[in-house]
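JOB MANIFEST
job_type = single_chain_structure
chain_count = 1
residues = 154
[input]
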Amino acid sequence: MPVRDARPRTPAPSLAGPALELAPPPRERVYLEITPAAAHELRTHVAGLNIDRWWLRYTIKGGGCTGFQNKLDIEAAPPGDDDFEFVVDGIRCVVLEWQRPYARGTRIDFGAVDGNRGFIVTFPQSRCPQNAAGKSITDEFEQRAAHDRAAQQK
């Protein structure tokens, strides 16, 4: 009959060590600011459209008196490969990947200006007069737009 060791057994040491807590993922920079008034108006508008999932697309186009025009669209289609998706206060947003650096700092509000109610977009790049930096950005927009048009025609 085998002899048993009567000493109390201690559990074998764990190779994994103590449970590790994972650090939260790094926070992505917020590219757009959406005011509470604009967020409320967006949600109210989309509720009337009966769309389950939607994204707010912000697009910067060349043109206008400052060299830039802002465009807001509600999209039901998921973002594509050329898009950068992020969330601002629960609202899924999309910008074209190459427009990320230009979109940074944009503020979207809703209110009245000169008796007209609507979205008010403050684009920080448009505050500067048309200068060498503004011209190079406008040139890039025009080149990208021409490239996109050529790709769609193929």
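[summary]
Residues 132-153 form the longest helix (22 residues).
The two ends are 86 Å apart (CA to CA).
exit_status = 0
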